[in-house]
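chain below, 239 aa
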Amino acid sequence: MKTHRLHSWDVSVDQARAIQKNLRAWIITEGKCRRPRMMARIELACAQEGRDSLTVQACVSIKSLPGLQLLERKVSVRTSSFPEEPGLASFRKVPAIVAALEKLVRVPDVILCDGRGITGDDSFGVASHVGLITNLPTMGVSPAKPRQMTELLGQKRGSWIPLQDGGGHAALVRVLEGQDPLIVSPAHKLGMEDAVQQMLLYVPENTPSWEYQQALYPEAGLGLRRPTTLKLVSSKGKG
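prediction:
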């Protein structure tokens, strides 16, 4: 799969902020992905190697829709020396994602990516960066913080409420009845309602609760019946 090289990753913090501000203008947070046949799921595992060194493992899985048959999975590991700065996580994490995406044979119709979409007026999250690099409909997904799990959200599957947090654009979504909600955010070329529908397509109603929890918290262990699906396997490889 080809990606678009929009800028260098070897940049200073000030350069990164300028790049991100320019790219923000190209983000589209409306549209629909009609009858998608393949969805890519991007999962990230990170390990801090030192004060200024982060090792990132990106796992990209492509599944068919609506059957969710696994068609392809690629993994890449990269170590970043870009400093930890608020709002610039993509400059640490996206290079590993790009390396994994470029190994794919298939091109998905929609991408579901760990992280956030629009996070502010002049910035955006990992998922939006991926959306621009691939030029594909992309949405971000992340666990909800305790303060966001309010009684305003219904328990019924598919219930959602909009979140406005520092200029961000996201929704709190009950993906499975009785289970913790997720934050879903349109990242590029998708509107809010369609992003919610794509999330429900990827996690069908009959998904076992243990499988959902494992997917939601892949590095937590949780003592479930199967091993976690994503582990950081190496900090040295360039694969």
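Residues 7 and 61 are 25 Å apart (CA to CA). Confidence is low (pLDDT under 50) at residues 220-238.
thats it, cya
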